[in-house]
Amino acid sequence: MKSKSLEIPLRDTDEVIELDLEQLPEGEEILGILRTENVPLHIWLTLAKHYYKQEKMHDFVLLLENCHKDAATDYREQEKDKMLALDTLAAHYVSLGRKEKNKEARKKHFGKATSLYTQADKIIMYDQNHLVGRAHFCLLEGDKTDQADAQFNFVLAKSEKHIAANMGKACILFNKKDYKGALGHFKKALKGNDNCPASVRLGMGLCFYRLGNTDKAQMAFERALELDPRSTGSLIGLAILHLNSGDKDKLIKGVKLLSQAYGIDSANSMTLNHLANHFFFKKDYQKVQHLAQHSLQGTEVEVIRAESCYQLARSYHNQQKYDQAFQYYYQSTQFASPSYVLPHFGLGQMYIFREDYANAALCFEKVLKIQPNNNETMKILGSLYSQSDDSDKRDQAKSLLQKVTTQCPKDIEAWIELGGILQNSDVNEALKAYNTAAQIIRDNIHEDVPPEILNNIASCLFQLGKYEECLQHYETALDYCKRELQNDEAYLSAITVTITYNLARLYEALHEFGKAEDLYKAVLKEHPNYLDCYLRLGCIARDREQIFEASNWFKDALQINQDNANAWTLIGNLHISKQEWGPGQKKFERIIKTTNDKDSYSILAIGNVWLQMLYQPTRDRDKEQKYQERALAFFKQVLRQDPRNMYAANGIGCVLAVKGHIREARDVFAQVREATAEMPDVWINLAHIYIEQKQYVSAIQMYENCLKKFYSYQNVEILLYLARAHFVCGKLEETRRILLQARHMAPQDNLILFNLSYVLRHLATNTLRDEKSGLEEVVSAVRNLELAQRFFTMLSKATERQKYDLNHAAAEARQCTDLLSQAQYHVARARKLDDEQRAIRMQQEKAKQELENKRREEEELIRKEKEEKHQAMLVQREVYREKAKNILIFTEEPEPPKAPKGRRKKEEEPLYSSGDASSDPDKDDGLNDEEKERKKKEKAEKRQKKKQAREEKKKARKERERKRLQQEREEKSGKYTSKAFISDSDSDGGDDGDDAEPVPKLNESPVKAVPVKTGLLDSDSSDLDESPRKKAAKTRKRKHFSDSEDDSDIREEMEKGGEEEEEKKDTSVTKISDISEDDVPEAETSTSTAPAKKPAIDDSDSESNDKTSDKGEGLETETLESQPTEETDVMVSETRETVFEENPSEEEGEKEDRSEKKKDSDDDSDHVEKKSKSEKRRKGDEKKKSESKKKKKVESPISSSDSDDEVEKHKSKKKSKEEKKSKKKSSKVSDSDSDSRSKARKKKRKDSSLSPSLSSDSDSEDAKKKRRSRKKKSDKSKKADKGKSSEKSKQSKSKKDKKRSKKVVDSLSSDSSS
User: Fold this and answer.
1) Number of other residues whose CB lies within 10 A of the CB of residue 1063
2) Alpha carbon of 899 to those of 756, 1241, 1246: distances in Å?
3) Which pTM value belongs to this model?
4) Across the chain, which distance is largest between two alpha carbons, in Å?
């Protein structure tokens, strides 16, 4: 209605009553008109609306309450008007209930509203305005938010731009902290109506503020103020933004805005709370309390009331009115939401002041739950947890403070708190924390370290045993206090007292008790009520065994504080140390009464008193049972209070052991020891259990480990336990030693003296009872017995109370006396036994000495024999060495003839016998290192000389070859020369063909061959046919002689061999000179023994001999072979053979063939290897047959008629020998190189070229002398190059060789005679 008047129609007429809406009459008058005229319901609603605008609430309510029964409802839209009337009145009651502070009245208003909304539901239940009104009412009630949300969603589903529904939904989302969602609904409401109320802008500003967009929040608040200048919410919002900016001008502007809001609505609780907060920082606590009190009384919103209580509480807190502060903190926590933690923080501080640390910890835990990274809360909680007895809490405190130091590494308070927590668990880490705090102060604050931190550092050093550094820190702290005392005298004086007390404790630990007493008394002089100084002075006196003085100091402490538990505990311990169980028990019982049975130490001490009573000798079993039960009850009580108390568990184990439950007691002690290894009592108790179980070795080991680990072998009590263990184990001497050690440590202890006397008596008794004891042992036992008797007599007369039984000491003294009365008998018996043993020992020593002398004499004889033998061996060795040196002397020799070609490398090697010292020059086991080194040098020199000699021989051979070729050119063809033909043994054994005896030169005229008869050796056919190479191989295969044979035999054999060799050299061969064909007898020959030569095989010689035999026209003589000996290797029978050289050109052709064979040496060796075995067998059989025939018959002189047959036989024999030799050599040296063959061929040519020709007698004599000289020189050179032959084999076969030589001579003589 745009008009300012309202026309009310009159009943039954056309007249109306016009009312001015701006000047409405009273409600009763209007109500009478409306009832009389039966006015329609919509006019009632219009008048009620104008009354509401004019704030005539009484008339407004009066019209709405009577419209339902008096208004006319006979028009079309009367149901909507009825519902509107009910909803409007219900909204009015809702508003009254929201403003009502009285709960009863509020409840009454809300009840009326609920009734009206219920009536409206019956008319039109799903009307949008009705649902929105009802939803706001549910939202106001607080516990029906979900119902309100559902109704808002229903309305918004039908009309998205419904302002009231959007605002209600935004409020629900804002309370759920969905600020973006709330902001969206506010924006929808704003889009639906540009002229929406200022509360929409206010809601948007609050959402922007919560989202951190302060600029838009400020714009929204300012727009709301433009729309509604009296909007207190917008003024408060702007004021908060200005106050939080930090700008001084804005701070002033913010305070002005709050004052403006207070001027608009002085009862607004939010305005009052913010003004109270402003005046709190200005320390105007009276205004704070006035404003907060009005705010608290002017609102029923719990969040606002919680803030009002918090403002009141902290104002009282700063005024140190802790009771009132505690009251309002607690009231604030009741009103506050879970996220509002400031009241909990303050309440926790109040609990700390009241020393209710458990509730304080709960308050701070709530704060930490909402703000997990709050450093202040973590520091306070860490400090609270550190004082807890729960190890988990202490670990949690450590982790909290470590987190603080990590987040804020320069927080000094956090480092100090962390050091305080770690000081009881990890002193090293605590010291690091304190040092870190001190370093931060020096580096960042640039100030001296405060004395309290220095004191804490020194305390840590004291616990670590670093007394020197600790002393320096204490002195530094005291200097700081003296220097800064004028600035803060009260605080520094208190710190000085604490540091002085700690310094006295340090001197006490350094055993400087005089300085410690002076410092304690100095502190008492300034502060007579410092109770700890009295206690420490009493402890010093107690340690000096000044029990009375110690008791006085403790009593002085009790005069200061009658209920001091430490003083009563020390006095009780004094009584218990003197075994005054009753007085000690009373002292601890007093402590338990004053602490309400919470002092675990006192309860444990009483349990120990009852346990000690069990150890007292008594025959009353009922009392013993009573004591056991009481002790067990007290230990169990301690465990109920502290389940981890190791001492209580140890006490229970002791009670079980006394009851006889040894196995169970052992289990308890073992568990305690596993829990902690730093408790010596459990080690001792375990050792006691081992004693009861008769495990003495384990018990002794346990006692010794405990002494070493905890007491450094300086505890008298444990030494007594150890001595007892050795005693029951039967080790009396070890027991005596341990008791003497304890006696030196505590000479005033009569119990040690009693035990020592008891052990001495047992030692003496055992010695005297043993009939085998010696005199010294018996005398020592008697002395120990006398000493024990004196000790027991003295101990039995003691007047003071002792730890032993005086009657027992007297009985022991009497027993010692009885034993001493029998001492003379035991001494006499021991003396007699000692004399007998001494005599026996003397006899044994005498016999032993005789045996020893005899043994020494025998050893001396053996030694002398060995020395003599050794000296003899040395002499023989020196003699032998001298002879060996003479043998190895090289002499100049004429150039030997060029050696024939052939394989002679292995033939030139000397044969050694293992029994001969000279056979193995490298072997000398008896030589030391120097001699061996000298031998090596000599060998090297010899090898060098041999090399030089070979080179000289090579040059000489080349020169001889050159001369020979020249000589051959000068010779005429058809000239006959004579060549001495030696046997196979001689040709093989010779080195260069020089060993053959010269044959006299025949007449120059052509002559026939002279038949010469030779005799056969008396030997096997195999010996005749066997080549010297095979004999040498057999010689090598013979067993070595023992090296242990005496060198004298070797020297004798060498001397004999030398004489025989000289004789052989001097013997002359029968010569043939100028013998004509008619003058030669039929059977005349001469033989001679060739000099000793080593057996060797030369295929080239045999080959050349065969060729000459084939070409010559004369007859060959059969060769004679003698059995070789070790001295001469073979005995050679030399014969002479006339060779006719009719065709020297053919001989030169043969030489060319040989040179070609030298080039094709590999083909020759292959040819030799391919000799068939059948041919070998055939030739061997023929050779055996011919030799057997020779054995059977005696050779007759060979005539000229059968000379051809003999020559053929000789050729066949020679050919078979050659084939045998080649076969054997090919099997041994098939892979040898062509050098050996070339040497053999050269030797052959040399033999052929240098064979001496027959000449006159004078020429033959000269040639003989030359050959002899060459032979001597070649023998010497061979001995030097190849070594000496085996002397032992010479000795063994010398006689046999002589016999064979004799047989050869006899046979030859018989043949000549025949």
Assistant:
1) 10
2) 109, 8, 5
3) 0.49
4) 223
The residues facing 1130 across adjacent strands are: 1093
Q: What is the pLDDT of residues 86-103, one digit of tens each?
A: 888 888 888 888 777 777
Locate all alpha helices (DSSP H) within 1112-1198, ordered by sequence: 1144-1159, 1161-1169, 1173-1192
Pairwise CA distance, residues 192 & 1136, whole Å: 164
Host H or E run for residue 902: strand 901-902
Q: Which residue has the higher pLDDT, 867 or 175?
A: 867
Q: Distances from the Cα of 464 to the Cαs of 427, 475, 528, in angstroms? A: 7, 18, 31
DSSP class of residue 709 equals: I
Whole-number Å distance between alpha carbons of 1204 and 1112: 11
How many other C-beta atoms lie within 10 A of the C-beta of residue 744? Answer: 10
Q: Is 1264 exposed, middle or buried (0-12, 13-18, 19+ CB in 10 A)?
A: middle
Q: What is the DSSP letter of 510?
A: T
The distance of Cα 474 from the centroid of its chain, to the nearest Å, equals: 42
Q: How far apart are CA 1283 and CA 1262, in angstroms?
A: 31
Chain length of the chain: 1314
Alpha helices by DSSP H, 805-822: 806-821
Structure tokens at 855: 């043994």
Return the SS3 of 19: strand
- What six digits make up the tokens of 512? 């400087």
**What is the chain's alpha carbon radius of gyration, rounded to the nearest angstrom?**
71
Is the CB of residue 998 less than 8 Å from the CB of residue 1260? yes
For residues 905 and 801, what is the distance between their CA atoms, to the nearest angstrom?
Answer: 116
Task: Say which range, 47-61, 953-967, 1089-1103, has the weakest mean pLDDT.
Answer: 1089-1103
CA-nearest of 676, 671, 791, 683 to 743 is 791
Q: In this structure, how many other beta carbons lie within 10 angstroms of the beta carbon of residue 604?
A: 22
Q: Is 315 helix (H, G, I), strand (E, B) or coil?
A: helix
Q: Return the bridge partners of 1132, or none.
A: 1121
- One DSSP character per residue, 153-202 reads HHHHHH-TT-HHHHHHHHHHHHHTT-HHHHHHHHHHHHHH-TT--HHHHH
Percentage with pLDDT > 90 across the chain: 23
Q: Is 684:657 a contact under the CB 8 Å cutoff?
A: no
Strands 5-9 and 1120-1121: unpaired
In sequence order, which residues have a C-beta less than 8 Å from that of residue 641 and are 6 or more positions away?
598, 600, 603
Is residue 738 within 8 Å of 723, Cβ to Cβ?
A: yes
The C-alpha angle with vertex 1251 and arms to 1249 and 1254, in degrees rounded to 5, equals: 125
Convert the pLDDT of each residue in 706-765 to its tens digit.
999 888 888 899 999 999 999 998 999 999 999 999 999 988 888 999 999 999 999 999
For 887-919, b/e burial (b = at least 16 CB within 10 A) is ebebeebeebbbbbbbbbeebeeebbbebbbbb
* 812: its two tokens: 């022991």
Would you state the torsion angle of the CA atoms of residues 670, 674, 676, 679, taken in this order, to the nearest 10 degrees?
30
The amino acid at residue 1206 is E
Is residue 1009 over pLDDT 50? no
The percentage of the chain sitting over the pLDDT mark of 70, rounded to a whole number, equals 70
Which tokens is 406 given?
């990590």
Return d(Cα 349, Cα 352) in angstroms, integer: 5
Say which residue the tokens 């008594």 belong to. Answer: 618
Distances (CA, A) of 883 to 577, 887, 927, 1047: 103, 6, 18, 12
**Would the pLDDT of 388 be above 90?**
no
CA 267 from centroid of its chain's CA atoms: 79
Q: What sign for the dihedral angle of Cα 70, 72, 74, 78?
A: negative
Kind and range of the H or E run holding 16:
strand 16-20
Tokens at 1176, concatenated:
């070998």
Nearest to 289 by CA among 297, 280, 298, 281: 280
